[in-house]
Amino acid sequence: KQEVTQIPAALSVPEGENLVLNCSFTDSAIYNLQWFRQDPGKGLTSLLLIQSSQREQTSGRLNASLDKSSGRSTLYIAASQPGDSATYLCAVSDGNQFYFGTGTSLTVIP
Amino acid sequence: DGGITQSPKYLFRKEGQNVTLSCEQNLNHDAMYWYRQDPGQGLRLIYYSQIVNDFQKGDIAEGYSVSREKKESFPLTVTSAQKNPTAFYLCASSRRNEQFFGPGTRLTVL
Questions:
Q1: Is B26 left (phi over 0), alpha (psi -120 to 50) or beta?
Q2: How far is B78 from A40, CA to CA, in rounded Å?
Q3: Chain-chain contact of B101 with A45 (C-beta, under 8 angstroms)
Q4: Which residues in A lie closer than 8 A to residue B43 (C-beta atoms)?
Q5: Chain B contact set for A102 (CB, 8 A)
Q6: First to last CA, chain A
Q7: Tens-digit pLDDT profile for chain A (110 aa)?
C-alpha cells in the first residue's frame, strides 16, 4: 500500500526566508501528485498539481518538483510571508484513490 | 460559483444517535470522497464513489454508511456503531485525478 511521508512535521522561519517542504512516497506508480494548504479548522485548498509525466509546476512564489523514480517531491516557497502560515499536505493518486501525508505545519514569524 | 458545500459546519451528537453529514458539489465531478481527520494524523479515507449508485469502502468504513443516488450529492451517515466519531470530516470530489475539498464538518459526541 502507498505510504506518504512529510518531513519536517513542523517548521518555523522568519519572514522573507525561502524554504523547502519535503514529501516522499513508497510506490512510484502514481498518476499525479498534489500539494494542498490547510488553515486551522478549514478544508484543503489545492496549490499545485503535478502530472506523473511532469517534473515541476509553478504558481507565483510556489514551485513544486516531482522525481517519480526516487519517490520524492518538494514544495519550494520563495520569500515567505506571515500569511503563508498553515499546514501543507501532499497527496499522490494511483488513479483510484488518493494517499495523504500527515503534513508540515509552517509558521512564518514577522 | 462552482464548489463543494458541506453542512452543517458544526454537529453535536449524543451517544447512540445516528447523524448524517451533507456533501453537495456543482462541479459535475463523477468521483466523490469522504475523509476523516484527527489531530496529528493524516486524512483517512472512509468511503468513495466513482459513479452514481456505486461506492467502495475505504480504510476506516466500519460504523459509517453512504449513498450516491445523485451525481452531485454524497451524504455520510455516522452510525451508533462508530465508537469514536468525534473528528473533522472532509468531503472531496475529483476530476482527472485532481481533488477539490469542501470546508468540512466538525462532529463532536457529547
A1: alpha
A2: 23
A3: yes
A4: 89, 91, 100
A5: 40-42
A6: 41
A7: 899 999 999 999 999 999 999 999 999 999 999 999 999 999 999 999 999 999 999 999 999 999 999 999 999 999 999 999 999 999 999 988 899 999 999 999 99
